[in-house]
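User: Predict the full complex structure for these chains.
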Amino acid sequence: MATQINVYQVAAKNLLRKKTRSTLTVLGIGLSAWVLLSLLGFNRGYEAALNKDIDNMGFQVLVAAKGCPYEAATLMLKGGTGLRYMNESVIRDILRHPQVEKVTPMLMQAVFDPNKGESGGINAYLGVDPATFPSLKSYLKFKQGGWFTDAQSHEAVLGYEAAELEQREVGDQLLIPEKNIELKVVGVLSRSGTQDDGTIFVPLRMLQKEFGQEGRVTGIGIKVDRRADISALENKLYDLPDVQVVSMAQVKETIMSLVSTAKVMVLSIALIAILIAMLGVVNTILMSVIERTQEIGIIKSMGAMPGDVFRMIWTETVILCLLGGGLGIGFSLALSKITDILIRRLLPYTPTGSLVAVDSGLAFLTLAVILGIGLVSGLYPAWRASRVRPLESIRSEGE
Amino acid sequence: MPRQTTVLKAQNLTKVYKRGSEEVLALDDVSLTVRRGEFLSFVGPSGSGKTTLINILGCLDNASSGRLQVGGRTIFDGRKGLSESELTRIRRRVFGYIFQKFYLIPTLTVEENVLLPFAFFRKPGSPPGVFDLLKSLGLEKRTRHRPVELSGGEMQRVAIARALVNNPEILLADEPTGNLDSKRSEEIGQVLKSLNRKEGLTILLVTHNPALARLAQRTITLRDGRILS
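Assistant: Here is the predicted structure of the two-chain assembly.
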């Protein structure tokens, strides 16, 4: 048989009185914890994924024809559309700078494929120089075959996903629609987790010739000497006519500015959810205190000090917040993949890799925020309960 | 300690309530001495001041004027009184309260309800467990039950057990059988009588029930805030 009961046990059991009300409050807190943790995870995950994409590009600076900076950023990361051309002779000017270690020219071309999807779609081909491009992309490994050796050959290397989409293997033929050019697949890349997975690589010279773009490129990737000052080089490259210079830092900044709008929106939703949850907690605990005024008075007549009553009511708030916070964190961890998909639909550009990086540190931070908010929410009801005088309960009994 | 020790001494208690702009005299110059082990019942018509008087005697309310001493300690003298914290300390050591409503916590078992005062204060010398107390009140088979599973009489016995768990010197009972039928009222009356006779507990009982009032050694009749007899 028990010999003791404490304030915390009483508080926990009090919450079982109105199970539906307590459950709804916990769900409200859980929802706000879910949104908050997903947002924090997104803040961290998006930047990490973007950094990974940029690191995996193999070059730190891209020179592109003058145009919209957002287009240039997209071009650098994704291959991009809205093509602008520059003269290949720019390479010579770039190579004059001692900070430049390697350069690789690239030509992006896109054609309409009527057989793609239900109503056709755009196929993009990235022309690369077999002499320079592979050494800059040393992290790319082959599942089958290897790089084309001749810049003029009618050959293609498919990224992992591109090969799956086209259902091609080494030795198969690949047709460029509109142009009716047949290419032989000489290599299929292993999955890299980067944008290269979806790319069809072809020899640069062949692509220039077949598309009538001899001597023209859409981008030049530059690998800068490790010891060199990248921003000093960028400033020098700006002196070149009709080009724009996009550095890794700039790309990151541009993309982050694009997603900042979405971040503000999600943050606003999180704040509203937290505010609603906070009001829910205040409402639940305050209602409970008002309903139990007589009982609290009796408890005080038993010898409970105002601090005891305050602690009891505050504990109820803490329990609600811990349960809600735990539930929200559980949801966030279990449904991070779905959150990832939803965010990808919402944003104009998303890097590869996980966008929502939730870890134990962020989970604890979320729990601490929810608990902090809960404790503040519980202050007024707890203070009000602590001020109930025993006599009030007895007087209201007779009324 | 000798049986005739004074535990409560009230002198010239007056209580005036304000009801809007009107002043209502609830107690008018009431003086009373209660000795250890006495069983007093307070009777009188509704509004005669019975509940107001035992609330003041039980340190739940202050008088407008007069003096109250509990165990030799002055609780208030004129308008000067102890702070709320000091009153709580007096209440938790000296008094046990029973009311017309039982105020049992529905989510706690009988045993947990009785143990509830220990969550806030445990008086030295109080029993380590509550089984013997529950057994003495005929509740030993109900320890794991929740209040909703009990009869009205059983619920009031649980409330009595809760009031006794910290070994109070004085038990205040305000209409404890007001919600019970005559059979259950008699049952509660016998419990109170037994506590007084066997345990020597001082009991102040407010009741409208003449049969219950007759169990007390002394009956105090109030009318219009004054003691008639």
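Residues 35-62+84-227 of chain B form a domain with the Rossmann fold fold (CATH 3.40.50.300).
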